Amino acid sequence: MTPDIVRYGELRPCKTAFIDAHTPGSDRKENFTIIGGGVSESADQFVHITTPHGFNIGAAGQPPKCRNSLHSHRTAEVFFVLSGRWRFFWGRHGDAGEVVLEEGDIIDIPTGIFRGFENIGTDYAMIMAILGGDDAGGGVIWAPQVIEDAADHGLVLGANGKLYDTKRGERLPAGVGPMPKLTEAELADYPEMSPMQVVGWGVRRYWDMVALAKDKPVKVIGATGIIRDRPGFEVDLITRSSATETRHRHDRPSVLMPAKGHWKLVWEGGETVLAPGDTASVPGGLDHAAWPSMEGEAALYHVVATDDPAGPSAIG
């Protein structure tokens, strides 16, 4: 057994992943599906690792002033900022609240609310995403205005969850209608959460987590985490001072994602070095260890599935 490793420089983007791919302001984003099929609506999306993990790992890369349109998920959606400066916003029209996140910060967004995000930095930047469940809840739920805007620019989402580009002459197949928009009655089930609810519950700042991880890894998301959520996976942050060269194993696949610095990953019969933007999937039952391989700042996110259902997160 050996880890599966996806290098940052080998990531294969999809620029037509979602219904807003032609909508001005959202038409330059890139979507990456690293582990699992994710929620992409495009047949052009490349999946790097198909082995089920109990969760999905993806990423979004966007130039400055590019945004991802308002949407919701049926399972958890967690982001950490790999590079740049990002504004996350939420609500039916995106005006219920917002928060700005910097490199290393993490946000656990409750299910059942519309959310979007925008690169507000000065360079191309990337955020890494964790979605609950192997099928990530079956897809994206778009705010009605997103579907309307997309149609004005040639993209139609079928009820089968697939995109059709009318500018390229594509049409919905026989027997397949357009994805229905949420009704006003259905929209009433999507709460307008306050900044205190979303930020206070689900946002943790990188440097605060580094302080907590001084002597041992800090559990960021989990039943006993600093975000007390049970979305079907746990997230830990490991730093230079809390890393160990002692090998260990899990009974299921685990994922290592460096946020800062270079990390040496070793296992029986092999070793490699991971850098920010790389993703390593370690098979269950494989003894391994990871620690910083160079001087300087170093932090790594560790993700492993739990036996908790991957369904809706609830603010506690």
UniProtKB/TrEMBL annotation:
Residue ranges of domain Cupin type-2 in the record: 64-130
Pfam families: Cupin_2 (PF07883)
Tagged with keyword Metal-binding: yes
InterPro entries with a match to the protein in the record: Cupin_2, GPI/OXD, RmlC-like_jellyroll, RmlC_Cupin_sf
Keywords, sorted A to Z: Metal-binding
SUPFAM superfamilies noted in UniProt: RmlC-like cupins (SSF51182)
Superkingdom of origin organism: Bacteria
Protein name (Swiss-Prot/TrEMBL): Cupin domain-containing protein
